[in-house]
Amino acid sequence: AAERMLRGLLTRAPNDGRVLRCLAACLRDLNRSNEALAILERAIAQPAGAAQALILKAGILGADGRWADAEAAMDQSLALQPGPSAQLFKIGFLLLYHGDLDGAAAMLAQIPPQYLLDERGAMTASLVWLWRNEPDKALAALKVLSADMLTQGTRFQQIGVGPRAFFVGQAQQFAGRPAAAQSEWRAALTYVNTKLAAKPNTVEMLYWRAYLLASLGDKVGATEALQVYQQLQGANETRVDWNTAPVFVLLNRIEPVLAFFTTELKGRYAGRVIPILRYDPAFASIRDDPRVHALLAADATAPAASKPDPKSVAVLPFANLSGDPAQEY
């Protein structure tokens, strides 16, 4: 019905950028990305709203795994009209695909503070500071959030979606305050268990139960929760993906994690393997492994990483746990 209404509006105003962008977003949500991209080319050709259309284009291209094209569209948007939405999106590229921590911090400094008060802004800022080994700044970024469950995250595949107390806890752990971290994780686990009591097979909550139990050192409980999560996903219980890799690390099941990253270096998300291994605190405990050194050597020109506390367990999940395909990007 929404598509039919928007197409009707276009018959009367074929060059209306707002209608074109709305139709493209509608088609995106219907998983018709090629049609959405074609509509966006018309929107980009309009003098008004081209920057916003390019942000939409970047999101769709990213969902299709075309990250180089997505970043090019984002750079076009920034060139036309620098703004917080595009800048927050670009920060994700700088971190996850370039490992450019200084560039990400510099762009973050350009964003007016009021745009860092919602989930997307706050979570993006906290990610920058964690990767830069400045956890107290990450905590300051997170203080503005109050919801128990964060649902917006960043624009990069559910990064920053999850229990707020988990993210506060990871920053506390990274800051060298393990007791404070454990307190936050226990609070997050209480929230997750309450949700599971109401709906026992909620995949998203089972994932967080596994991750939180592993963070708290309960390997038996974490393994059981991870098994249920994997089975409900229809996956082999030993399968590692972007989402479960940090849980496997906490369970000291390193071999499948290394095999996963080795395979990913040849896949659609190859560009993010090196920055994540270099900077994400979740993998600090395996960073001195010679096999990880071999993977890092794949990017001989990358700058040396600052070395976080090896006890740190911070990570942000990458898979779409929402059940909403429109959130995949």
The gist of it:
By secondary structure, the protein is an all-alpha fold. The chain has helices at 2-12, 17-29, 33-44, 50-63, 67-80, 84-96, 101-110, 119-131, 135-142, 164-174, 178-198, 203-215, 219-232, 245-250, 254-264, 270-279, 290-296; strands at 149-150, 162-163.
Write the SSE topology.
Layout: H1 2-12, H2 17-29, H3 33-44, H4 50-63, H5 67-80, H6 84-96, H7 101-110, H8 119-131, H9 135-142, E1 149-150, E2 162-163, H10 164-174, H11 178-198, H12 203-215, H13 219-232, H14 245-250, H15 254-264, H16 270-279, H17 290-296
Helix pairs in contact: 1-2, 2-3, 2-4, 3-4, 4-5, 5-6, 6-7, 6-8, 7-8, 8-9, 9-10, 10-11, 11-12, 12-13
Protein architecture, described:
By secondary structure, this protein is mainly alpha-helical. 61% of the residues lie in helices and 1% in strands. The chain is built from 17 helices and two strands. The chain has a two-stranded antiparallel ribbon with strand order 1-2. α3 packs antiparallel against α4, α9 packs antiparallel against α10 and α11 packs antiparallel against α12. The longest helix is centred in the middle third of the chain and has 21 residues. It is globular. The C terminus is likely disordered.
Per DSSP E runs of 2 or more residues, the count of β-strands stands at: 2
CA gyration radius, whole angstroms = 20 Å
**Structural class by sheet pairing and helices:** mainly alpha
- The end-to-end distance, rounded to whole angstroms, is 24 Å
Question: Approximately what portion of the residues adopt beta-strand conformation?
Answer: under 5%
Major beta-sheet overview:
2 strands, antiparallel
- Portion in helices: 55-70%
One letter per element, helices H and strands E, the order comes to HHHHHHHHHEEHHHHHHHH
| Low-confidence sequence ranges | 301-329
Instruction: Figure out the total of helices.
Output: 17
Rounded average pLDDT = 87
What characteristic shape results from the CA principal axes?
Answer: globular
Give the neighbour order of strands across the main sheet: 1-2
